[in-house]
Amino acid sequence: MLEAVRSGVAGRTPEWASRLRPSLDADTRFAYKLLLPAFLMMAIIHFLPIGWGFYISFVELDAQFISKWWTAPVVGLENYAKIFDPSTIVGAEFWSSLKQTVIFTAGSVVGIYTLGLGTALLLNEDFRGNLIARTLVLIPWIAPAVPAVLTWQMMFRSDTGIINHLLRSAGLVEGTFFWLIGPRSIVAITVVWTWQNFPWATIMLYAGLQSIPEQLYEAAETDGAGRWEKFRYITLPQLKPVSVVIVLLLTVWSFINFTVPYILLGSNPSDSGQVLMLFIYNYAFSNWSFGLGAAMSTVLFLVAMVLAYAYYRRIIGGEFDGGAI
Amino acid sequence: MLGSAGTDEAAEGRVPSELRLTKAGRELLVTAVSRFALGLILVFALFPIWMMVMNSFKPRSAVMTENPSLVPRTFHPSNYVEMWSRFPLVEYFTNSLIIASATTVVSLLVASLAAYAFSRYDFPGKSKLELSILGTQMIPGVLILLPMYLLFINVQIHVGLPMKDTYHGLVFLYSTFTVPFAIWMLRGYFDTIPEALEEAARIDGCTRLGALFRVVMPLAAPGIAATGMFVFLMAFNEVLFASVLGSENVTPFAIGIQQFETQSQTYWGQMMAASTVATVPLLLLFVLFQKPIVAGLTTGSVKE
């Protein structure tokens, strides 16, 4: 019925006219009204702060200007020059944390996707207790994050943690072995982040596996394809669209993750575990250096946006149609 | 043991014939290996939750030992009593419940309207608006946090309305983060409800909004409940904004629980007891209502 109304309108008026006067259509007006509250909120909390943050990245804003932010001196690109110059203290730390963020993201995405795919494949078979296994596997993703990460912190303790105890019993490590300080702290945050998110990849890939038509496998079997051939030439290509979305979202999420490194490593992490989000947070709020913090946030945002754009291209490519974010 | 088919011969041409398995034998082996692998994954998934619950029943000496055990050697439930008196933990729980519940109500209401518009209507700028909804998921929190801090402080100073460390400040902030997510999820549910039902309601004299609240929302109730659970979790788990904008007066559980970690020592047993109290009821709820939640997550995620 709606379609008929709309096409009727479009038939009578030229397209440019209907674009100029969209309010003519009662349905359209209703739709905009429905969207208004959501977009009003987003304008205040998302769009305004992004513009504001962008402005702050060009001023020298410290503690004395907090209540009179508009009087802070404009310094142009100086903040950006500082964070990109590796010879300054903040620049050196910025590059180092950017590098750690990239390593963390790459490790996490590979880990989460591989584990998620493996789990989805194992669950994509009929056996007793399948539903129970599918429910249990989601638990890391459902469990409240802070208590879960604190538990990991307890397990990762060098002297009294269960992980080192098990590794020592297996003869894999000797003496004190630090996870939460020093070069292995990046391993610790990657493991915990992987643990928390592989269930999401599993459920997405499981849905993807379920939607592969059975006939494809039957046809391949008649052609004499084995287990590996079926996986390589049917499963993987069929999972490609959903995989692209998963990998892109995981990349962005890993890039901007805060909770896991913050809770696991605290406010003063070793360089190895100092990812960009954590560094910006600590730098901005311990030195009250909002200008530099905003400049670094803007860079982080631009990187995330480039990734998001790739995600968007994928969606309008028509291969993905919404669903869970 | 003879190879069962020509393809098997080709695939295993280099394997000595006495090591070759029949097709049925190989199937059995593959099944056994995959069940074992799945078992290992489940152990990995559940191990921290297990340790959380088990350590909540251990006395301090049994946690802080170089020889930690997988199950408590003595049953020590006093952590569950002592934890309440160390900090205002009841208050933290209450704060979190208030903030997360209010966030859930506000965002479900706002998001239902928007999701319905996206699901049923076609209007100029639709794809751009949808894109901006998705785009908000890519914004790093710190980028918002710095201006939000300034906004809250300045509203407080210049308008006189307290925002920092208030319930309404956090609820408003969190709702905005959860609304885009909720729109996306609810839209998937609304799409599955046949449009004919609303048309019938409209003919019977229902308004557009009436049709949404009286026909569509009741039908989408399981989906709304599942979305609500995720919104609640997001608000309950948030630490970045809470640590700066809500660390006093309205301290939520996610921030308050970190106080078990003091400069001199960490009260692990009590921290794990508090964690268990926050985690286990929620997991039980999830296990009970698993079906609509999981279905909702994957609705429309892959084009058929």
Automatic annotation (TrEMBL), chain A:
GO annotation (BP), single: transmembrane transport
ABC transmembrane type-1 domain location: 98-311
Any one of the GO CC terms: plasma membrane
InterPro entries found in the cross-reference section: MetI-like, MetI-like_sf, UgpAE/MalFG_permease
Protein keywords: Cell membrane, Membrane, Transmembrane, Transmembrane helix, Transport
Subcellular location(s) per record: Cell membrane
Stretches that traverse the bilayer: 34-55, 102-123, 135-156, 176-195, 242-265, 285-312
Membrane association type: Multi-pass membrane protein
Similarity annotation: Belongs to the binding-protein-dependent transport system permease family.
Name of the molecule in the record: Carbohydrate ABC transporter membrane protein 1, CUT1 family
Species name: Haloarchaeobius iranensis
UniProtKB/TrEMBL annotation, chain B:
InterPro entries, per the entry: BP-dep_ABC_trans_perm (IPR050901), MetI-like (IPR000515), MetI-like_sf (IPR035906)
PROSITE patterns: ABC_TM1
Membrane topology recorded in Swiss-Prot or TrEMBL: Multi-pass membrane protein
SUPFAM superfamilies listed in its UniProt record: MetI-like
Family, similarity comment: Belongs to the binding-protein-dependent transport system permease family.
Taxonomic lineage: Archaea, Methanobacteriati, Methanobacteriota, Stenosarchaea group, Halobacteria
Transmembrane segments annotated in the record for this chain: 28-51, 92-118, 139-159, 171-190, 211-236, 267-289
UniProt-recorded name of the protein: Multiple sugar transport system permease protein
Pfam families linked to this entry: BPD_transp_1 (PF00528)
Gene3D superfamilies, per the entry: MetI-like
Residue ranges constituting the ABC transmembrane type-1 domain according to the UniProt record: 93-289
GO terms, biological process: transmembrane transport
Keywords, comma-separated and alphabetical: Cell membrane, Membrane, Sugar transport, Transmembrane, Transmembrane helix, Transport
Broad class of where this protein is predominantly found: membrane
